[in-house]
Amino acid sequence: MKSIKLLCLAGVSLLAAQTAQAGDAAELNVLGFGADGKTFAFEEFGVQDGSGFPYANRFYIDTTTDEFLPDTPIRVMLEDEGKSAQAARDEARLRGEKIARDADLAASRGHLAGFNAVTENSADPHKMVVNPRPVFPPIDPQLEFNLEEIDLGEIERCPGIGPVKGFRLTRTVDGKSEVLQEDKDVPQSRACPTGYRIGGVQTFFAPDGKMSYAVLVTVIRHGFEGPDHRWIAVTGRS
């Protein structure tokens, strides 16, 4: 009986150790689009592995140029393990209201046309094909997005990690493909990325009839205790 108890305790200890060594996966929340479809915004939030500090980041993107709006992204990290991720989100939201009101973005949230959670193992992580809006039978051409990882070699800021990765993202409509993004290097904001996956597609049809879209990409990067998952978006308007 004593040996069985020791084995059980060892198992619990091993499970706790495995859990403690897990990287963190940021939660994603789509805030929405501007009423004219020319702005897309989303937030990510969580608790940083290693430090235990809560964080919240907000991204506001011009869909006509795929560039961040001035004074964004908004990044908040509360260097206090006693604080919650919600506290970080609240601070980021207050700052974000100066860029675009949450209520206005929510009124033009659009459609989550496709989504693969970071825990999804059965879907293709590098390809997503969607109907842009929930109209059946479809009245729009389907959207196809393909992501290809690019080996960019070892870089100075990521010693011992091995080759870091960039990506190429293409969009195909009616058999015609265009490259939306092709990395030549890795931005500092991505830290030390080792992989990517297409996490979701958000669409919005503006009053002028044009469609705006955001391809939500999961960045898998080297973390303190394991692989971390963060979010970026590639946007467009057509």
Structure description:
The protein is an alpha+beta fold and 238 residues long. Helix content is 16%, strand content 42%. It is built from three helices and 13 strands, in the order αβββββααββββββββ. Strands 1, 2, 3, 4 and 5 form a five-stranded antiparallel beta sheet that branches. The protein has a four-stranded antiparallel beta sheet with strand order 6-11-12-13, with no helix packed on it. It starts with a helix and ends with a strand.
Q: What is shown here, in short?
A:
Helices cover 16% and strands 42% of the residues.
Tally of helical runs: 3
Beta-strand content: 35-45%
The strand count comes to: 13
Helix/strand order, N-terminal first? HEEEEEHHEEEEEEEE
Residue-averaged pLDDT: 92
In which range does the helix fraction lie? Answer: 10-25%
The major β-sheet equals:
5 strands, antiparallel
> Which secondary-structure class do the elements indicate?
alpha+beta
Distance between the amino and carboxyl termini: 69 Å
Shape: globular
- Rg (C-alpha, Å): 20 Å
Unreliable residue runs: 2-20
